[in-house]
Amino acid sequence: MTATSPGPIVLWLASRYENIELVQAALAHVCRQREIDGEMEHWIGMALREAVANAVKHGNRLDPDKRVLVKFDGVGNDLTIVIGDEGGGFDPERVSDPLAPENQMKTSGRGIFYIRTFMDDVSFSRGESGGTVLTMHKDLSKRGNAKGENE
Amino acid sequence: MNKNASVRKIGDITVVELKGKITIGAGDLQMREAIHAVLNEGARKIIVDMSGVSTIDSSGVGELVGCFTTSTHKGAKMKLMNLPAKISDVLTVTQLITVFDVFPNEAEAVASFAS
Q1: Which of A60, A132, A133, B99 is the most exposed place for a label (fewest CB within 10 A)?
Q2: Residue B34's domain spans which residues?
Q3: A71 close contact with B: CB closer than 8 A
Q4: What is the CATH number of the domain that holds A103?
Q5: SS3 B102
Q6: Which CATH number covers residue B23?
Q7: B92: part of which helix (H) or strand (E)?
Q8: A128: pLDDT confidence band, cut at 50, 70 and 90?
Q9: Structural domain contains residue A141
């Protein structure tokens, strides 16, 4: 049985990698509230780290004056996490496939793949004042398949 | 001093023991520095012990790939051992587990250099 959502939690963070740890701590709090087990928390956390790192690095280009939005929400078996940046926008169609043989030994380009693998539904949109908004959902009823294999 | 990595020798084999998070802005660069340092010191048989790694992200995975490529270019062999299950999963979903030489323990990793 999944606990009732206590309502949204919203964080606005400076674009620093150190803040990824703060977001991770917030996720741990949300997981305790929503009675999400450690296995599922690990894989959600992996996707969340990638999303925030992308917002800091590629979205806001490490400009500490630009902020990253992180919002935890959702009810019942849905956990929704929204990550927004204040950068110049992002076209997910231009992300190359890290499984393609020509990309396998590249040192970057796997973050979005991990997000899509470990979450159940992922979408990108343009923020109201520019930037990219990533919305990702986790179906908390899939506890036996926490890392999203074969989906 | 690198708090995410320590180095020891087994004969002519260099073991780099990684610890903690190998993630963006933190352990990823320290891992690269540690492996590049042993390569620059002449190590050509390298085993990376992953048993102490708690988390790896795409940046850490990318650095691991980069270190593997650099090792190959320098004529060295870099192998991995003692992968925690979650680290193995992260490498598996991107099919990198088949790129690296991965061993379940030190004895098998060391023996692989003799064959």
Answers
A1: B99
A2: 5-112
A3: no
A4: 3.30.565.10
A5: strand
A6: 3.30.750.24
A7: helix B85-93
A8: confident
A9: yes
Identify the closest residue of chain B to A105 by CA–CA distance: B65
* Angle formed by the axes of helices A111-118 and B85-93, nearest 10°: 110
Residues A68-126 have pLDDT tens digits of 999 999 999 999 999 999 998 878 888 899 999 999 999 999 999 999 999 999 999 99
What chain B residue is nearest to A115 in terms of C-alpha separation? B58
Task: Mark yes or no for CB contact A107/B63 under 8 Å.
Answer: yes
Pairing state between β B13-22 and B5-10: antiparallel
Question: Is residue A144 over pLDDT 70?
Answer: no
The residue-averaged pLDDT of B23-32 equals 92
Number of domains in chain B: 1
How many structural domains is chain A composed of? 1
- B65 and A99: CB-CB below 8 Å? no
